[in-house]
Design a protein that fits this description.
103 residues; mainly beta; Alpha-Beta Plaits; elongated; metal ion binding; Pyruvate ferredoxin oxidoreductase, delta subunit; electron transport
């Protein structure tokens, strides 16, 4: 038995092929969203590493947080984040908080 190719599926199912989340805004069903608290972030990259959608991006620059200066910070691309909470769960300093999505 062979499976059909994505192009052979009825319209509406072909958008779910692997990699399609980068072509389609997929955050519409999110009920919780992660918020990064820069003052607690230790730049360990675990959120970036474990994000299944690759929505956490590293931003390089000079960032002053309190009395410390960092050369990198992390931001979330909310167009694609599905609110799964894996980033918040993996953060060792609890710098990521899941908050209710506002309409």
């Amino acid at each position: 038995m062979s499976l059909p190719k994505a192009s052979q599926l009825p319209i509406g199912t072909a958008i779910t092929e692997p990699g399609s989340t980068r072509r389609n805004l997929t955050a519409g069903w999110r009920t919780l969203r992660p918020v990064i608290h820069d003052d607690r972030c230790i730049r360990c990259q675990l959120c970036w590493l474990y994000c299944p959608e690759g929505t956490i991006v590293e931003v390089k620059g000079v960032f002053k947080v309190g009395n410390r200066t960092y050369d990198v910070k992390y931001e979330i691309n909310y167009d694609y984040c599905k609110g799964c909470g894996i980033c918040a769960n993996e953060c060792p300093t609890k710098a990521i908080e899941m908050v209710p999505e506002t309409p």
